[in-house]
Specification:
Layout (H helix, E strand, L loop, with lengths): L9 E4 L5 E4 L14 E7 L3 H16 L3 E7 L1 H10 L5 E7 L29 H11 L4 H18 L2 E14 L2 E2 L15 H5 L1 E2 L7 E6 L14 H10 L4 E3 L5 E3 L2 E7 L4 E6 L13 H14 L5 H4 L6 E4 L2 E5 L7 H4 L8 H4 L17 E7 L3 E6 L13 E6 L3 H10 L4 E2 L5 H10 L4 E16 L9 H10 L2 H6 L4 E3 L25 H10 L14 E4 L2
Parallel strand pairs: 3-4, 3-5, 9-18, 9-19
Antiparallel strand pairs: 1-4, 2-22, 5-20, 6-20, 6-21, 7-8, 10-11, 12-13, 13-15, 14-15, 16-17, 17-18
Helix pairs in contact: 3-4, 13-15
Length: 542
């Protein structure tokens, strides 16, 4: 969810009065020196963040607020916001997921503490109760009903504003075919499909595909990883129990069938009996049980919080595993889509600090070699249980720190794609210059852009103020600032990533700066402007 890369800090403090734009007749307007100073904090290196923040900054100025914009690096910003809660308005992107876990984490009173998920300080006892009831729903219908009620509370109280889900513009080589487009992009922990189905253009199989990475993996131990770039490699070498299909439905993977009984507190999974690890050992229920027990024992960072309700795993047979839960959890199958199954025979005496220098899994690719900080080479698993896959003979990862160099490598054919989205302007320029060798694939990106209010301080602890801000923001302008995207509701759920999970009756704050200004004046957040000849005025940015 966090991104780390530092550019220069830009702080622009505006304490004067705004310029004027008449809505009809010419007049005059007094400076609003009594208005509270509203600080917007955002990251300084991630273009969707700071470009959206600039638009919001101008629009809040336009309705009469004294605003300052602070663009900071992660080393400064994250402790201020997440640990010390030292912010008024915070604009940041979070990674999307098919299961809306943030709806069950970001607004709950028990997560309102330093470094807790509830950075806004939102507290609502009804929402707390609904959270537990919804996560423990006996069936999907009850889950949807509970989630809709939760969304309505959050949207009505407005602790945050959803801005947009940006577009993944993936610059890729035409030398290969078989790219699978799905939310998040062609190369994510949710999307192994591209890597498995890619093949040289006009050829059935073979070839080595090269993916440019912005940074090296922090670890080859999948349980010590904390990044999605690490998860992507992990889930090419290892298999999970379930996977997300390209349409984001959950499908059994190492599992043939399963049942959920005991009011949602017992999961019984029957495994495929034809899966082997890359060292030739069969993958069994004992390996599955060991994997999950390892996560629970060592509190593996990416996985523990999503499986900590599991206890006393049993294996009635070599290909049946039973997960008893302390309480029902509707997101368990989703969590299982990214947890790699490891061989107990290799891992039985290891821990989180083990470097795992020669990873062995059951996935479509096998680890071949690594030069730390430079490259990783994978080769096709010739004994993969899905016959005929992967179609490639190899999958290489090259670490290229600079974005411009990654694009240049794709243009020259040194690389075939890059891990994350290519900035739209660079993708368009490459496509214009090399139309015969590259193409651009588009899909909903991994990043969802949000504006968060600190409900612990004035004036953002006032609902009328938050509503005025919602009316003041032109989401279309915010979206256009970074080349397009998909509008978001004011909850942590989106139709692009969570189809069918968005309450259709949520309140909608259409762009209305005049109403925003009126609310700010009515409730005393700014003074009413001085007018001549009954004229009407609107603040606009300088």
């Amino acid at each position: 969810m966090k991104r780390s890369h530092v550019l220069a800090v830009l702080a622009s403090v505006l304490l004067g009065f705004a310029a004027l734009l008449p809505l009809g007749l010419i007049g005059s307007l007094n400076a609003q020196t009594s208005a509270p100073v509203i600080t917007i904090k955002t990251l300084n290196f991630f273009p969707p963040d700071y470009e959206a923040a600039q638009v919001v900054y101008n629009e809040l100025k336009a309705v009469g607020l004294n605003v300052q914009l602070l663009e900071e690096g992660p080393a400064e910003l994250y402790p201020e916001v997440q640990t010390n809660h030292n912010f008024t308005i915070y604009l940041n992107a979070y990674s999307a997921a098919p299961f809306p876990s943030l709806m069950f984490e970001a607004f709950q009173s028990w997560n309102n503490y330093p470094n807790g998920y509830d950075i806004t300080g939102f507290q609502n006892s009804t929402l707390d109760q609904l959270t537990n009831q919804t996560l423990e729903a006996a069936n999907h219908t009850q889950f949807i009903q509970g989630l809709y009620k939760m969304e309505d509370i959050v949207a009505q109280q407005l602790p945050m504003i959803g801005l947009y889900n940006d577009i993944n513009t993936q610059l890729v080589s035409k030398a290969f075919e078989g790219y699978v487009v799905m939310p998040g992009g062609e190369f994510t922990q949710l999307n192994p499909w591209s890597a498995m189905y890619l093949h040289p253009a006009n050829n059935q199989s073979g070839g080595v595909f090269t993916l440019a990475y912005p940074a090296d993996l922090e670890h080859l131990n999948p349980f010590a990883q904390t990044s999605v770039r690490g998860e992507f490699v992990t889930l090419l070498i290892y298999d999970p129990l379930f996977r997300y299909a390209p349409n984001l439905s959950i499908i059994p993977w190492l599992v043939t069938n399963y049942s959920i009984t005991n009011g949602g507190k017992t999961y019984t999974l029957n495994l495929r009996d034809n899966v082997t690890f890359q060292n030739g050992e069969p993958l069994t229920a004992q390996d599955v049980a060991f994997t999950y027990e390892f996560i629970l024992k060592y509190k593996a960072p990416l996985f523990y919080d999503f499986v900590d309700m599991i206890n006393n795993i049993t294996t009635p047979s070599n290909y049946t595993v039973v997960f008893p839960l302390s309480e029902p959890y509707a997101g368990l199958l989703s969590a299982m889509t990214t947890i790699p199954i490891v061989p107990e025979s290799i891992w039985y005496n290891k821990n989180l600090s083990w470097p795992n220098p020669d990873p062995i899994g059951s996935g479509p690719f096998m680890f071949q070699s690594r030069v730390p900080g430079e490259s990783i080479q994978l080769v096709a698993n010739p004994h993969y249980w899905l016959k005929g896959l992967p179609k490639l003979s190899g999958f290489d990862i090259e670490v290229v720190n600079q974005e411009s160099v990654r694009v240049l490598d794709i243009e020259k054919g040194v690389a075939d794609a890059e891990l994350y989205a290519t900035p739209p302007n660079l993708a368009a320029a490459a496509l214009n210059s090399y139309p015969n060798s590259v193409e651009v694939l588009k899909s909903p990106d991994l990043w969802m852009m949000y504006l968060y209010f600190n409900l612990r301080e004035y004036p953002t602890n006032n609902l009328h103020f938050r509503q005025a801000i919602a009316y003041a923001i032109n989401k279309t302008a915010v979206i256009d600032a970074y080349g397009g995207g998909y509008p978001m509701p004011n909850v942590f759920v989106t139709q692009q990533w969570n189809p069918g999970l968005v309450n259709p009756n949520l309140p909608n704050y259409s762009y209305n700066p005049t109403l925003a200004h009126q609310l700010l004046v009515k409730y005393g957040f700014i003074s009413a402007p001085t007018t001549n000849n009954n004229s009407t005025y609107l603040y606009v940015g300088i």
